[in-house]
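Review form for a predicted model. The reviewer records the input and the model, then writes brief findings.
Reviewer: anonymous (R2)
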Amino acid sequence: MTMVGELKQHVPVFVGSTFEDLKEYRRAVRDSLSQLEMFVRGMEYFGSKPGSPLDECLAVVASCKVYIGIFGMRYGSIPEGHDRSMTHLEYDEAQRCQLPSLIYIIDEDEQPVLPKYVDTGPGADALQSLKETLKKRHLVSTFTSPDDLARRVLHDVPEVLRSIGTKVDASLPGDEPTSFVDLLRKFTLLPKLFRARDVTIEFEQGQFHSVAADECEALRLETGATICGHMKLSTESPLFIYVYASGEIAEQVLDVPRGAHIRAVGSTVYGTSTEIEYGEDGAVDKIQEHSGVSLRGVTAVDRQESSQDSK
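Model under review:
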């Protein structure tokens, strides 16, 4: 017997974003939240209000229990008398109210955007600054299509519900304990189709090596600051996958003792590079495929196994 009905507390969640450029994405998020029986609040539902649009909007944000921020390629309109956009002010209000916040930023490398929905000049600068702030404060997820965003929201929201004391049954969509394993199995077979998916992985610390420039470029990772290892995941059946780490995360991973058990969050990545091979017919371009999980953070390290080995 399902317990999904226990979510009928109708937790109010505010969905913040610019509007015209992200209509389809907002609709997809709304549909996901409806599956979780949450009460969706956003600009679509304001109607006629006695106060100013900004005051009414911020009052709605403050009345919610969860904030979801969706950020594309527009900074948004700036209310009179302010130096920040409506979307930015919504985010600020959510942080002032200490609302649990889920942040999603469009994947600028994978998702095409119509030119009319791309800010330039001061708007672009303000948006870039805001995105940098979001990445420093939150564990940000990137998204491509509306369906991709909907799936991410459906997966992430149950954990937020638990954090605020809402009962969530394990049978909720996107909350299956084996979902990451199943996804990674599919990713190893069809990496192009299952790229840009958020995953949590567990593996035993092994040997890492530096990553060549062409591979970094193919996977959009930082050249000269990225490491990679072919790791066996901690699953019931053997599953090996390439694990990438860049910058500070790479340093953190390298500091973990050999043999320690690591739990980390990341995203599946896929790309191609061209290698020139010379044969009897001259130079031939050979396409090389690269795929794996790019780590965004290490959430736990169990050093017990490695410490026992040292005794």
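Findings: DSSP finds nine helices and eleven strands in the chain.
Further findings: Residues 1-8, 170-178, 305-311 have pLDDT under 50 and may be disordered.
Recommendation: see findings above.
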